[in-house]
Design brief:
Strand content: under 5%
Number of helices: 9
Helix content: 55-70%
Distance between the termini: 68 Å
Oligomer: single chain
Length: about 300
């Protein structure tokens, strides 16, 4: 019979870093996991609870939306193009539906963090969130870019596939780094996955010439793995982000149904998204520089006094 030392920590118990929040959620739950979810019950065959929490259910909704975005991109855009039966209106509806699903995935990703902070989160929460983010904000936008390279008239298919792979790998690297590198409180290091996916899609929907589009996509991929800081969506920023997502859905709907001025509104919204992706880290960097200067000024004043 195997004897278990009660003072020894089992190998399967995740550390605080492993259970840290994904996309700003689940911080401060490590102690709760230790007290509530990890009990020594010799009658249980599984060492960890496999019960899904409400937050985990929202996370699975995130993954489902990502998969459905790939489905609509394939059935409504790629297959009609390959079979020569494409209908411009149908392709537009399918593309808009795919993007709306990615936006819904971002909403699920936002709310699972809010719910996890208010209610209990299961031991699988962090891992589920990483896997779901990989589907919705890595695979889905990368696949969208690859399909764009096939159906666009002036696109280079090989280059677009390379750009798609770079986007996917950037999200993979970002999620892996986020799991093992501690972040400054209230800040992300690199462009967050949902924001990066929305920016990549916005660049494609702007319908710019191929070279600027490809360069813009690669630039977003670099921002996601860079050390540029982005604020976490909390409080007013979370409300602003949710409002922007809802507005984006409305713009996509007006474009999909060919509403008067719908295409202009969509392009304006996409351009604003790209500008926000470039401007937000500038504000964060400026704030950090000002804080550093204030600290130096205070240190000098304290030394002189």
């Amino acid at each position: 019979m195997t004897v278990i030392d009660p003072d020894a920590q089992p190998a399967w118990v995740p550390t605080a870093d492993r259970t840290a929040e994904r996309s700003g959620e689940r911080d401060g739950f490590a102690d709760e996991f230790a007290d509530d979810d990890f009990h020594d019950d010799t009658d249980d065959e599984m060492p960890l609870s496999t019960r899904l929490s409400i937050a985990d259910t929202l996370t699975l909704g995130n993954a489902t939306c990502g998969f459905m975005a790939v489905y609509f991109t394939t059935t409504g855009v790629l297959i009609p193009h390959l079979t020569g039966s494409e209908d411009g209106g149908m392709a537009r509806h399918s593309a808009a539906t795919a993007v709306v699903l990615m936006l819904m995935a971002a909403v699920f990703d936002l709310f699972d963090g809010l719910v996890a902070r208010k209610l209990r989160s299961s031991a699988m929460g962090a891992e589920l969130d990483n896997l779901s983010d990989l589907i919705s904000f890595g695979l889905a936008p990368a696949y969208f870019v690859a399909v764009w390279g096939m159906v666009a008239n002036d696109a280079n298919q090989r280059v677009s596939v390379v750009a798609a792979v770079v986007v996917l790998l950037a999200v993979v690297l970002r999620l892996a780094r986020f799991s093992c590198v501690p972040m400054r409180n209230g800040m992300f290091q690199g462009m967050p996955g949902p924001f990066g996916a929305l920016t990549v899609i916005s660049i494609v929907l702007l319908e710019l010439p191929f070279v600027p589009t490809a360069l813009g996509i690669l630039g977003v991929a670099w921002l996601m793995v860079s050390r540029v800081e982005y604020p976490k969506p909390r409080g007013r920023l979370a409300v602003a982000m949710l409002s922007w997502i809802v507005l984006s859905m409305g713009l996509l709907a007006s474009w999909a149904f060919d509403a008067p001025g719908g295409e202009l509104l969509l392009q304006t919204g996409c351009a604003l998204q790209v500008v926000l992706g470039a401007v937000i880290p500038l504000f964060a960097t400026a704030r950090r520089v000002n804080t550093f200067r204030d600290n130096r000024r205070e240190a000098r004043a304290a030394a002189q006094g």
